[in-house]
Amino acid sequence: MATPLNAESIHGRKATRSCLECRQRKVKCIWPDDADACRPCLERRRTCIPQVVALRDNHPGRITSRDRIAKLESTVAQLTQIVRRLEDNASTPGTYTVSDKYALTSRVNAAPDDEQGSESDSSDLSPINPPTHLRQLFEDGPLDFSDHNPMQSAAHAKQHTSGSRLHRANTALRQYMPSREDVATISAHAAPWLMITRALFVMPFGANAEAELLPLWDQVQNYDAHPAAIAVLLLSFVMSLQQIPVNEIPELSKGPRQGVSYIRQVSDAIEATIVMNDSVAGTMEGLEASLLWLRLQLVQTRIQKVWVCLRRVIALAELIGLPRAVQQQLPSDTSTTAPTPLPWQRDRSKRAAELWMAICSIDKLAGMMFNLPQSTIFPNLVREPVVNGLVNHQAYLSRLSDIASGIQDVDNQHARGLPPPELCEKVLRIDGQLRTLAGSLPPGWWQSDTRTLSPDQVIGFFHQYITIRSHVHLALKNQDSNQFMYSDLVCTEACRDLARRYAVLRGLLPTGFFACRIIDLQALTAAIFLLIKQHNPGNDVANTNLNGRSESSTSLVEEVVKTMDAGSQTVAGRFARESAQAIRSVAALLNSRDASGQHSLSLQVPLLGRIDVRRKARGLVAPSIPQDDKPAPSWKQLSNGPHAQAEAVDPLSHDGEDQSWFMEISSMPPFLSSYGEGGMVAESWLQWEGLD
User: Residue 26 sits in which domain range?
Assistant: First the structure.
């Protein structure tokens, strides 16, 4: 039965006369005159409920969305303050995950409003050596001035920044402070990597010996210690911890006992508090910590990230005037009347010069390893590579890096299509520099075959790789002719010698040595080149035995692969694992005799990404070498140097059967040049894992 409507309901629905029943059934709602219900509802004996407009309540009893958001933000702010107070009072390492890295960065960089105002009004630079044109305004003429001693103004600077970022960075890093017993235990494993690093690279800061770790730990126990000093201790500790195999980590406290997880946490915390914090990284202490952090990243982090962070360190060092500090260490003209620096000025300038030399050495090493341009100016402050029969490894590596920078010009000229005879002139110029550098070494240095780790082995390995890189373009063009026989001979013998050295050196290096990945990549270069030469029977240049060694290229490549398999089980073993798989795949492709077998494969090459390699008809890929009026130098013209006398060519073993195919590979392999097209983008992030 239809329910009568009251006047309030009729008034509430205003202009609409459709009831809820008719609206749901989608029928026409017909209202008879003076009726309290519509006709469809009367016919169906349904309750006729008109639509009523809900009026807005002027006094709502519920909370709006804006009020809920404001209350939630207030609650989060209160919880954040509580957590910060707990962290300040915490004395043991807290829990930290990779996702907390970005929260840590924002917390360290976030400053209260009053601190932001004071920092924006102050100078954003602390120059070690301020610009000379500004100093001259106050030195020459009727004016004179003197610099403030930074040690005397340290208290004022600390008072200005202790309540802001330095304090928060100090608090964040102390969460990962190891105990003194842990430092004493790990310092026993620091000798190998510290010895090789100290011999090859400039290390004016941090722990230069295992006995310096404990005094470094004692120095940072003061609550007001600089966060960069804490970072240097943590980096020295985790770099020593990284040298220990996972199954041999001794009994440590809860934090360091986690091994790789603890190293990742420390790395992320230092990146957030020091490296990416301009106010800390833009100081000498912050730059020293940033350099140690970069060496840690070379073990497993993506090369692109390491290179960008290195450029950032260089830019900050230039902003505070470190290159000018180096110029002050150069011998000055006695005829000039320069003011005598104060003792504290001499000490600070010497420290800045050593720091800039360390930055330049890392820049040179990274440029040589990754074939990227150098961006630092390094005055010749280093002694001669060899003095009185003693090899200065740092000076030798610096000279070798300078020579390697010329290979980038060869790569660029080759990419632009420079004729091979003109390219040969540039290659021979680099080869002459390498010969001169090698000839300065004591007699018998190259024949040393020690089974104990020494800097000589690393230097010899890098020298042979630079030799390969300088000749590989012309050596690969010498497939069907002997026009570039000299480059073919030198490159082949350098590859064979590098393969022998790799089999010895890789097993002696500490498992966490930062150059292990690059050494694996360099061994891959030599192995692939030997495989190509071994399966090129049309070229008899590499079949001359001049040094009496009888091992074949096959046995050398097999030894390289075996060494890579062992290295793939270490912390920095990803490059070794991918390189071994690539060598096996290429060897299987080249040795295939089945016409219906696989003629192409997909390879994952370090720094190059995934590439497709296939066998191609030989006649389609043998390019004709344009002849120039000036002939290329011959072997007889170039075989009288000291390097040629010491290094000769071994015979390459091959079956002698003619094959109408070989690998389709460009004359400049991407893994031997910069990175190849898109190589830097193709490389994925290398995650920190227990067994990489």
Answer: 1-57
Q: Contact, 397 vs 462, CB < 8 A?
A: yes
Q: Rounded to an integer, what distance in angstroms lies between the CA atom of residue 512 and that of residue 570?
A: 8
In this structure, the answer to whether residues 122 and 10 fall within a common structural domain is no
DSSP, res 338: P
Residue type, position 254, single letter: K
Please give the mean pLDDT across all residues of the chain.
Answer: 72
460/366 same-domain check: no
Domain count, the chain: 3
Q: Same structural domain for residues 397 and 486? A: yes
> For the chain, how many helices (H) and strands (E)?
30, 5
- How far apart, in Å, do the first and last CA atoms of the chain sit? 80
Check whether residue 124 and residue 257 sit in a common domain.
yes
* Residues 325 and 410 reside in one and the same domain: no
Q: How far is CA 39 from the centre of its chain?
A: 82
Q: Is residue 74 part of a domain?
A: no
Do 364 and 397 lie in one domain? The reply is no
Give the predicted TM-score (pTM) of the model. 0.68
Residue with tokens 């590579």: 385
Which has the higher per-residue pLDDT, 317 or 412? 317
Distance CA 39, CA 30 (A): 6
Question: What single DSSP character describes residue 627?
Answer: P
Q: Which residues contact 501 (CB under 8 A, 6 or more apart)?
A: 457, 460, 461, 464
Written as one letter, the residue type at 410 is: V
Token readout for 138 is 């106050």
Residues ≥6 apart with Cβ < 8 Å to 511: 242, 243, 244, 245, 570, 571, 572
- β-pair partners for 610: 604
pLDDT band for position 89 (cuts 50, 70, 90): low
Task: Please tell me whether residues 23 and 108 are part of one structural domain.
Answer: no
Q: Give the CB-side neighbour count of residue 459, counting CA atoms within 13 A.
A: 27
Q: Are residues 34 and 165 in the same domain?
A: no
Q: Could you tell me the pLDDT band of residue 476, with boundaries at 50, 70 and 90?
A: confident
Residue with tokens 């003197």: 146
